[in-house]
Design goal:
The protein is of the alpha/beta class. 29% of the residues lie in helices and 27% in strands. A 7-stranded antiparallel sheet has the order 7-15-11-12-14-9-8, with no helix packed on it. The longest helix has 20 residues, at 511-530.
């Protein structure tokens, strides 16, 4: 959408050149539900003549059909595109709009006001330079006003327009306006927001949107559009150190090998020395290749392909950086996490972390604290729920290149992805690397797993028995070990109940404790296989995510998931330990199968149905599977 300029008729080439070289302002609108964000943006577009005739005709028709203004133009319909939004009169998704004036180009993200859609506001604000925070003049500063302001500060947005909206509904009261501004400034100081420009507006009536309003003679500041067109936005990306996360290694033939990606900060020139992070290898830029031809210099925001003078190893997810100020490298961090999923964040559960073009496995510790966004106090927390914000440590399976989020949003911000559903469940900001990640290094040892296993004449592996309580896991695992022992194999059995007497005696049966329970025993099983043993692990381990985490610790072919399958009714009828009866009476909380779920394996290596197979037959079948897989060695 382009502003209609007289220059179009006079000199089209001059107009296109001027339009191409306008600055771009990205901003978001946010606030509590019904504060009038969509109406304000719609009015902004309408008064600035940013609407084509067919759009205006559609707006007039929609306003009569589904509008909320009694047949008058409902400017919110220009932005609220979802049917559910129009039916409810609220914004649900993030609506992006591009428009321009003679002075500047704009991308605006209209973000939702309801608390359950706070995650969408985080998405919209992640690339914004400025935030327009709306307040209903009748209601003043609300919980969502504080929540969104805190998130604005957290996301690194430092310029805020405080739009006191619906001034027409309070008779354009100067006193109400001053009281709201004073209250907001007091809160803003606590969250490090200082560059605040308050403007009294009416999105519906158009007061102080594009022209000064006669209804507010006491106000002498800029109009909303006037401020957006002239506010100075520091081109911080150009002045930051050079960073290019490699998205693709381009190898069309033997004579060309380039590294493609978008420059997220800084500049790079042909012949400049660069460093590949995290490997630390260095080379010089031979060419800067684009679709339009080679460049001598490229800047932040450009998508380019770099070729290097030396043949060095560079992969997707690596970062090309300047040698004078390279990014940090670590695998453990302190972070702020904004949880965005209905299912809570469980400490110890592995998630995918995507930072730039790199994806790694991440494990989150129990939160140090979560933040009450209304009072800003730090609260103790075991986990994070939907829209909660907490400070947590994160450990990765591989070191990555990063900058603190306060220095670079692109190399310091990340998302968390559920490993089973592939849904984005959280967003995070890196504070700093943990010192222990720099002080602890892997010690090389001369005696390794292969030599220990060879001494025993077997291949190490883990048999992971999973199933409901009463399915027969421990009984079958015990019989398997007896048979292996008789064959002269070296084994160890980790039983769920036995481990809880010692190593895991501090853990209960909440989802969080169950995740930690499996994490610990998986690490122990890994150490035992490293010792060359055949390890049996007999745990309910109800969640697929944790069983997948356990599998990821072992080499291919070392992990055998054994599903000991028994219907709940049969397991409950057995009830050897009387646990189901206690759970039914409410004496045992979070009992698997009763008030806590069990997620059966989808493709186990070994499947046992104990309703048709005896424990002895099951054990023999498992040992036979190990023999077929070559795990028992010559003596097996």
């Amino acid at each position: 959408m382009a502003h209609v300029s007289d220059l179009i008729e006079q000199d089209i080439e001059a107009y296109l050149h001027a339009h191409e070289h306008k600055s771009l302002l990205r901003f978001i609108t946010c606030g509590s539900v019904d504060d009038g964000k969509s109406t304000l943006i719609g009015r902004l577009l309408y008064d600035s003549k940013m609407i084509f005739e067919d759009q205006l005709a559609a707006l007039e028709a929609d306003s009569k059909k589904v509008g909320t203004q009694g047949g008058d133009l409902d400017f919110a319909l220009l932005v609220d595109g979802l049917a559910a939004e129009r039916e409810q009169g609220i914004t649900i998704d993030v609506a992006y709009r591009f428009f321009s004036t003679d002075k500047r180009k704009f991308i605006v993200a209209d973000t939702p006001g309801h608390e359950q859609y706070t995650r969408n506001m985080v998405t919209g604000g992640s690339t914004a330079d400025l935030a327009v925070i709306l307040i209903d003049a009748r209601k003043g500063v609300l919980t969502q006003t504080r929540r969104h302001s805190y998130l604005v500060s957290l996301l690194g947005i430092r310029k805020v327009v405080l739009a006191i909206n619906k001034m027409d509904l309070v008779d354009y009261s100067h006193e109400i306006y001053d009281a709201i501004v004073a209250e907001y400034r007091d809160f803003a100081k606590q969250i490090d927001l200082h560059d605040i420009v308050p403007i009294p507006v009416s999105g519906l009536k158009g007061d102080n949107i594009t022209a000064p309003s006669s209804h507010t003679p006491w106000y002498h500041g800029p109009t909303l559009m006037g401020y957006l067109e002239t506010v100075e936005i520091e081109d911080r990306l150009q002045h930051q150190p050079f960073r290019l996360p490699v998205q693709w290694v381009n190898r069309p033939n033997l004579d060309f090998r380039g590294f493609a990606g978008t420059i997220v900060s800084g500049t790079v020139s042909q012949g400049e020395k660069i460093r590949v992070v995290p490997s630390g290898r260095e080379s010089r830029v031979a060419r800067i290749v684009t679709m339009e031809g080679d460049l001598g210099r490229a800047v932040a925001g450009q998508s380019v392909t770099l070729t290097l003078e030396d043949e060095i190893d560079v992969s997707r997810g690596d970062v090309l950086a300047c040698t004078s100020a390279p990014p940090h490298v670590a695998d453990q961090f302190e972070t702020t996490i904004i949880w965005m999923a209905d299912e809570p964040m469980l400490p110890g559960r592995p998630y995918w972390m995507k930072i730039g073009t790199k994806q790694v496995s991440a494990t989150i510790t129990e939160p140090k604290y979560k933040v009450n966004v209304n009072t800003l106090e730090h609260l103790a927390a075991k986990k994070l729920g939907l829209n909660e914000i907490g400070v947590c440590n994160v450990a990765l399976d591989h070191p990555i290149a990063f900058d603190p989020y306060a220095e670079n949003r692109d190399t310091g911000g990340f998302i968390l992805i559920d490993r089973l559903s592939n849904h984005t469940v959280g967003a995070g900001l890196i504070h700093f690397a943990l010192r222990r990640s720099q002080n602890i290094h892997w010690q090389a040892l001369d005696i390794h797993k292969g030599s220990r296993a060879a001494l025993k004449g077997q291949k190490p592996c883990v048999l992971w028995f999973t199933g409901l309580s009463g399915a027969g896991k421990s009984t079958i695992a015990n019989l398997v070990e007896k048979q292996l022992h008789a064959l002269g194999r070296h084994t160890y059995l980790l039983d769920g109940d036995n481990v809880r007497h010692g190593l895991n005696r501090d853990l209960g049966f909440t989802d969080t404790d169950r995740v930690e329970n499996i994490r610990r025993v998986a690490e122990v099983a890994k150490l035992m296989t490293d010792a060359g043993l055949i390890v049996m692990v007999s745990f309910i381990s109800p969640f697929r995510a944790e069983r997948r985490m356990a599998r990821s610790l072992f080499e291919f072919g070392e992990f055998f998931e054994v599903h000991v399958d028994t219907p709940l009714a049969v397991a409950e009828a057995r009830d050897v330990k009387g646990l189901y009866a206690k759970a039914r009476r409410g004496e045992l909380k979070n009992f698997t199968g009763i008030d806590s779920p069990y997620e059966p394996p989808e493709k186990p290596e070994i499947y046992i149905d104990t309703t048709h197979t005896s424990s002895e037959e099951s054990a023999t079948a498992i040992v036979d599977e190990l023999r077929k897989a070559g795990m028992l060695g010559p003596a097996g």
